[in-house]
């Protein structure tokens, strides 16, 4: 059984589009979980109007929202997860393609064509070399809940999944196009790049020690 996690913070302008795309892709409202990351706008109210479940996450942060959403799925008998960011950057076509391939792969990760942040490019280079994942920070991921690393503690979801248990022959790096968006969920580009590189170093040290 597949559950959808939609991390969202102050996405009142986009959340209805995201939920609408998920419903149009054939996903039932009972399997859609919007994780409201302490929004101060009408994100929660709009999501509830669709009849989906809203999970309140008071700890601000993308990774905190993903953690709470995946923990909820794990505790409610789901076997698979689909992560779709709440900013409507992920297109309807990408969602449909992921769903179409859900039974053919153990892990599907969206692969964006034009990544601007140098920190993301460096992270992706190492994750592709280590695990075959081309775009670790893409806002579309579909996999098995057994891949969820419940002890993750690095920013931006770098260690959210245990990729060492994924068979590369059962991994799909799915090329996707993106909807335009007016802002970024990650913040100042310079600060983000520094944090990404620091967290990558921690990650590489950790797996080397193991």
Describe the structure in your own words.
With 210 residues, this protein is α/β, with parallel strands linked by helices. Helix content is 35%, strand content 18%. Strands 3-2-1-4-6-5-7 form a seven-stranded mixed sheet, sandwiched between helices. Helix 1 links the parallel strand 1 and strand 2. Helix 5 runs parallel beside helix 6. The longest helix is centred in the last third of the chain and has 21 residues. It is globular and about 45 Å long. 39% of the residues are buried.
DSSP summary: helix tally = 6
Number of strands: 7
Strand coverage percent: 15-25%
**Average predicted local confidence, pLDDT:** 93
Global shape: globular
* Unreliable residue runs: none
- Give the biggest beta sheet: 7 strands, mixed
Q: Name the strands of the widest sheet in spatial order.
A: 3-2-1-4-6-5-7
Order of helices and strands: EHEHEHEHEHEEH
Question: Strand pairing plus helix content: what structural class?
Answer: alpha/beta
Rg, Cα atoms, Å: 16 Å
Distance between the termini: 33 Å
Helix content: 25-40%
How are the SSEs placed, and which strands pair?
Layout: E1 2-8, H1 15-24, E2 32-36, H2 43-49, E3 53-56, H3 62-74, E4 80-84, H4 92-100, E5 107-112, H5 118-131, E6 140-144, E7 171-176, H6 189-209
Parallel strand pairs: 1-2, 1-4, 2-3, 5-7
Antiparallel strand pairs: 4-6, 5-6
Distinctive features:
35% helix
Give a summary of the structure in a few sentences:
This protein has 210 residues and is of the alpha/beta class. Helices cover 35% and strands 18% of the residues.
